Amino acid sequence: MPLVSTRALVLQSFPYSETSKILRLYTWEHGLLSVMAKGALRPRSRYGGVLEPFTEGQAAFYLKPGRDLHTLSGFDLVRSRQALGRSLVGFAGASLLAEMVLRVGAEEAQPALYAALAGAWDRIAEAPTTAEALAASLAGAWTLIGLMGFAPQLEECVVCGVEVEPGDPVRFDAVAGGVACTRCRPAGRMLEPESRSELRVLLAGEVPAGGVGRPGTHRALLRAFLDAQLAHDKPFRALELFLDHAGAARPAPASPADVDVA
């Protein structure tokens, strides 16, 4: 039962008993795993209340081969990201990213996924406006989707394989996994060129300055894609929270053309 030390992100934290916690961590060297923090809920705990979601630190724990639960020995705080609590949209977006990694992350090291999640949390926390917190959350979600192997196809029709130009009329087929030309998908709402261009930017992990042009469209795209590709009949709990707060933050209601996705 070796003692190992690795950089770790706290995805989830919940009480195990009157004095202890169980943490779900995403680590740099060991991927997704669970640890028990004994005594973490005691008033004078040596962890000092830092074992909360979105926290990053150097975690030391006893790795038990073949076991699902390991024992935390220490946690040296690197970043708390308390700023995420200032915005309902940012907090909900960060929670959705954590849930995505909990759902799809593996017990294998994937440093790129770790870096993408940590970077997305930082960008959300640092976003100066609600619109940019929304865009940073969308960028984080689409970046994780791509790293998990589910990136939507945007340059060719997912049905016939014909290349679609930036200005071509297309629809978004979440079940098929990308855009479809109007010959293959004659019915349904169009995905306008501006939103398709922004989606490319979001997939690259970049945040459009000032936010996205049609937030309602992007909320609908993300919902449809997560439901079709990753949910597997088990909806993401944080998704509705994120979409509700993101929608409430809009200065005006979305039009029907903004929210329907083919």
From TrEMBL:
GO cellular component, one term: bacterial nucleoid
Domain DNA replication/recombination mediator RecO N-terminal: 1-80
One Pfam family cited in the UniProt record for this chain: RecO_N
UniProt keyword annotations, A-Z: DNA damage, DNA recombination, DNA repair
Keyword DNA repair attached: yes
InterPro entries in the record: ARFGAP/RecO (IPR037278), DNA_rep/recomb_RecO_N (IPR022572), NA-bd_OB-fold (IPR012340), RecO (IPR003717), RecO_C (IPR042242)
UniProt KW Aminoacyl-tRNA synthetase keyword: no
Any one GO biological process: DNA recombination
Organism superkingdom: Bacteria
Annotated function: Involved in DNA repair and RecF pathway recombination.
Family: Belongs to the RecO family.
Protein name: DNA repair protein RecO
Organism field: Longimicrobium terrae
Lineage: Bacteria, Pseudomonadati, Gemmatimonadota, Longimicrobiia, Longimicrobiales
